[in-house]
Amino acid sequence: MKLDMFSIKPTETFREALIKIDRNRKGFLVVIDEHNRVLGTLTDGDLRRAFIKGADIKESITNAYNRNFKKLFINDDFSKVIEYFKSEKINFIPIVNENGLLRNIITKRNLHVLLLEGKKFTLEYDFLSLNDELLEHEIYYRPWGFYKTTFLNQFSQSKIIKVNPKGVLSLQEHKHREEYWVVIKGVGEVTLAESKKKVNSGSFIYIPKGCKHRLENLSDDEPLMIAEVQLGEYFGEDDIIRYDDKYGRK
Fold this sequence. Notes:
The chain has two domains: 4-133, CBS-domain, CATH 3.10.580; 137-244, Jelly Rolls. The protein is built from four helices and 17 strands. The chain has helices at 14-24, 44-52, 78-85, 108-116; strands at 7-8, 28-32, 38-43, 72-73, 92-96, 102-107, 139-142, 145-152, 156-163, 171-173, 177-185, 187-192, 195-200, 204-207, 213-217, 224-232, 241-244. It has a six-stranded antiparallel beta sheet, with no helix packed on it. It has a three-stranded mixed beta sheet with strand order 1-2-3. Strand 12 (187-192) and strand 13 (195-200) form a beta hairpin.
């Protein structure tokens, strides 16, 4: 577990703190003494406020770091972690042993990735090795509306899909995934193989691998929104075989 770039001594300078924060790309440091005992925390916001008050980049961070901070002990349970992260002001927490020595660090985003990937929770997990960019996904425009992936791992993908009034997805199938839809808002029609079904808020639709399907918004003025969960072995957009498309896509 590499904690060096996430920790700093109180005698180190603002310049050294800025360099470490720039390199770790997390926006914070944990302040420790020469014995590795946690003394406080230091964020890029703390540094910025110190500079506004006239601090010099060559002086030590002694008067800049936060001594009123939350910490977890290595044997604390899951409920305490959740309780701390309910606060909007807490984005990371140092984890210490019974003597107050730094053992680990967990961020709010680390926790989300750990849980969404189905990994076993323990405060000894190497949280900083997790790729929290998994939580960031773009919004993708389509001629019928848009979708946004809310999470993606090797087992599943979840999306929010918005279909504009009178918009219609292509008639398509997938070879590598099955899909589960729940209608959030609006009124539409789902084509499954040779059948068609009217759907509205609360409707559930299961789409097996290899089943032709299509979604259409029947409203003239209201969007149709669905939550989609995909399960399978591959979730790329090239796993779409189109049979018919209102917008002329292949």
